[in-house]
Amino acid sequence: MANKQIDMRKIKRIFKLYTSGVSKRRISQQLGISRNTVAKYIDFFKRYRLTAYEVEKMTLEELHGLFKADQRPKSPKLVELQRYFPYFDKEIRKTGVTRQLLWEEYYAKHPDGFRLSQFKYWYAEWQKETSPVMRMEHKAGDKLFIDFTGKKLTIVDRDTGELKELEVFVCILGSSQYTYVEACASQKLEDFIRCTENALWFYGGVPRALVPDNLKSAVTKSSRYEPKVNEVFADFAEHYETAVLPTRTYRPRDKAIVENAVRIIYNSPQY
């Protein structure tokens, strides 16, 4: 890296211009930065295999954490391992992917590399430094997070042998992370409301708010500021004297808790 780190906004601008086809010389002239410095920052993003879209979406704090982590002295083996972390960070969000599987992929290519426990430690350290986010605190009985998993469950009809696909409804209480899962025929409004009601009976109570992802059954119009809740679902919530607070679009942290539950569900032996 350059001896004196420049403004993070300017760093993001460097990579955006470069991936748009602007030459390093032209970027240097346009931003008033030496060509060597421009080249060093471009090489940094290439080394971590980051796309222009990923860099654009990173917050200034996340970008600063990434540079801070990169500037610490590291062994060649650790440097090689960390080259995989941005890729692993995308893969771990997929259903069924675990740190164990990611380590096996890494270890198959580097049999002299880190063992599983060390791999998990360094991956966790990298995540803390590159994703400095505020911890979300949840109060008991405050919110019930609701979603469909997106990955269907296949069952066999005992009488006909026919394979049938079912949707998987999941909800989780924010504080206790007590999870309810139900397979149903579809994501249609009737099935969605029935599953939600079954969950309330399962929990034996009603939270202060229901927090669905932007499902068509729950939200008729998505919006970052004023989503429009389905009228039938709104009536359902009113009947149970609770509120509906849809997750905000483009705010993945809002629904992280239910997505973690989905990951656990599909990593369980019965699936």
Question: Ranges with pLDDT <50 over ≥5 residues?
Answer: 249-254
Q: What is the SS-derived class?
A: alpha/beta
Assigned CATH architecture of the largest domain: 2-Layer Sandwich
The CATH homologous superfamily of the largest domain is termed Ribonuclease H-like superfamily/Ribonuclease H
Total discrete domains? 3
Termini distance?
A: 46 Å
Number of strands: 8
Written account of the structure:
This is IS21 family transposase. The protein is 46% helix and 14% strand. It is of the alpha/beta class and 271 residues long. Strands 1, 2, 3, 4, 5 and 8 form a 6-stranded mixed β-sheet that branches. Strand 3 (163-173) and strand 4 (179-184) form a beta hairpin. Helix 2 packs across helix 3. The longest helix has 15 residues, at 116-130. The termini are far apart.
Task: Give the topology.
Layout: H1 8-19, H2 24-31, H3 35-47, H4 52-57, H5 60-70, H6 76-82, H7 85-91, H8 99-109, H9 116-130, E1 143-148, E2 153-156, E3 163-173, E4 179-184, H10 189-203, E5 209-212, E6 219-221, E7 228-229, H11 231-239, E8 243-244, H12 256-267
Parallel strand pairs: 1-5, 5-8
Antiparallel strand pairs: 1-3, 2-3, 3-4, 6-7
